[in-house]
C-alpha cells in the first residue's frame, strides 16, 4: 500500500501542478492588459527601464516554452506571449526579464545554479544507470555513487526554487513600478506567476522523494 501511495504522489503532484499552470494561464491569457502592450513590448520596456541593452527578445515556438538564455543573452517568448496583449503574457514576459536582471546583477543563486548545470546534467544522466545497475546486481558499490550523482540533480532542483521565486518577485515589482499593470490586474498576474512556481516546487518535491527512496533502499541493502 505504501508503495502505491508513493507512486501516486510522484505521478499526481506533477500532473496537478502542470494542470494548474495551464488552466490559470488559459484563464488570464483571455484578459487583456490596460497597457495594451504585447509580451515582447513588456519585456523590452522593463529591460530598458533597468538599463539592460545587451539582451534581445525573440519569438520562440510551442506552448509556454518561454525562457531566458544567459549564454546568448536572449529572452525567448512563446508565440502567444510574444505577440499577445494578455495579463498572462505580460506576467510571463516580465518573469523572464526578471532572470535577465538577476544575470545583470550577478544574483548569487542564479550563479550557483549555472555552476551546478554540468554536475546536474551528469547526475541526471548517469545516476539512473548506476542506481538501476546497483539494484539489479544488489551492489552497494554501484548504488552509492548513483545516489551521490542523483543528489546533485536534486540540489539543482532546490537551488532553482529561490531563483524562480525571486524572478517572479522582480516581475511583479517591475510591472507595477513601470506602470504596465493596474491595481486590479496585480492579483491576476500574481496567480499566473504563483501557478508557474508550483511546477518547480512539484519537481523539487518529487526529486526529493525519489532520493529518499533510493537512500532507504541502500540502507536496507546494507542491513541485508
Could you characterize the architecture of this molecule?
- There is one protein chain.
- The protein is mostly helical.
- The protein has one domain.
- Helix content is 75%, strand content 5%.
- It contains seven helices and three strands, in the order ααβββααααα.
- A three-stranded mixed beta sheet has the order 1-3-2.
- Strand 2 and strand 3 form a beta hairpin.
- Helix 1 packs antiparallel against helix 7 and helix 6 runs antiparallel to helix 7.
- The longest helix has 39 residues.
Helix content: over 70%
Unreliable sequence segments: none
Roughly what is the average pLDDT, rounded to an integer? Answer: 92
What order do the strands of the largest sheet run in, or round the barrel if closed?
1-3-2
Global shape: elongated
Oligomer: single chain
Please summarize the sheet with the most strands: 3 strands, mixed
- Number of helices, counting only DSSP H or I runs of 4 residues or more: 7
The whole-angstrom Rg is 20 Å
Amino acid at each position: 500500500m505504501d508503495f502505491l501511495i508513493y507512486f501516486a504522489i510522484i505521478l499526481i503532484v506533477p500532473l496537478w501542478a502542470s494542470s494548474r499552470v495551464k488552466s490559470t494561464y488559459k484563464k488570464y491569457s483571455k484578459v487583456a492588459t490596460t497597457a495594451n502592450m504585447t509580451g515582447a513590448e513588456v519585456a523590452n520596456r522593463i529591460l530598458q527601464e533597468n538599463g539592460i541593452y545587451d539582451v534581445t527578445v525573440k519569438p520562440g515556438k510551442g506552448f509556454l516554452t518561454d525562457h531566458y538564455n544567459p549564454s546568448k543573452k536572449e529572452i525567448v517568448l512563446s508565440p502567444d506571449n510574444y505577440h499577445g496583449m494578455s495579463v498572462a503574457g505580460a506576467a510571463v514576459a516580465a518573469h523572464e526579464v526578471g532572470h535577465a536582471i538577476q544575470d545583470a546583477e550577478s544574483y548569487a543563486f542564479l550563479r550557483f545554479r549555472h555552476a551546478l548545470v554540468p554536475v546536474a546534467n551528469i547526475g541526471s544522466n548517469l545516476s539512473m544507470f548506476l542506481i538501476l545497475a546497483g539494484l539489479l546486481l544488489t551492489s552497494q558499490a554501484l548504488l552509492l555513487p548513483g545516489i551521490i550523482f542523483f543528489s546533485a540533480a536534486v540540489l539543482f532542483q532546490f537551488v532553482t526554487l529561490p531563483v524562480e521565486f525571486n524572478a517572479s518577485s522582480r516581475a511583479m515589482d517591475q510591472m507595477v513600478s513601470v506602470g504596465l499593470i493596474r491595481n486590479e490586474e496585480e492579483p491576476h498576474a500574481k496567480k499566473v506567476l504563483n501557478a508557474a512556481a508550483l511546477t518547480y516546487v512539484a519537481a523539487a518535491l518529487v526529486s526529493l522523494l525519489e532520493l529518499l527512496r533510493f537512500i532507504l533502499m541502500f540502507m536496507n541493502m546494507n542491513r541485508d
